Amino acid sequence: MDVKQAIEILTKKGYKTTGRRKDILAFFEQADGYRTAKDLLQFMEEKYEGISPDTVYRNLHLYAEMKILENTELNGEKHFRMKCTTHHHHHFICSSCGKTKEINVCPMEEVENKLPDYRIEDHKFEIYGLCPSC
Questions:
Q1: Which end of the chain is more exposed for a tag (fewer CB within 10 A), N or C?
Q2: Is CATH 3.30.1490.20 the right assignment for the domain spanning 3-82?
Q3: Nearest partner of 83 among 107, 108, 100, judged by Cα
Q4: What is the pTM of this model?
Q5: Alpha carbons 98 and 96: distance in angstroms, whole number
Q6: Domain ranges for the chain
Q7: In terms of DSSP bridges, do strands 126-129 and 90-94 run parallel, antiparallel, or are they unpaired?
């Protein structure tokens, strides 16, 4: 997903696309991997002195709810990244720097075979470790 697609989603749902919201989206579009609310707050404070952490958290949760951002938990803290929309895949996530690498393997066919009477609504498969740079 890119900023333009995200703005279209916001507009269709009746949300204003303010400069702050666009800057938050641009931050995630340029990020290489998952980032924390703290990372975003530091970025935003450079342009919007005194920006409220509540503003940052409120927008992060709005974007996650609208499936613009996806999130995961690393080291007990939520991390966010722009949602991937090109094709179905999963991620290796560096537990040190948050960088991601696509994994084009999905275990769901085997899982569905093991749970024949269950209705699976969604899934998430992530592998954590250290990237070559870390």
A1: C
A2: no
A3: 100
A4: 0.74
A5: 6
A6: 3-82, 90-129
A7: parallel
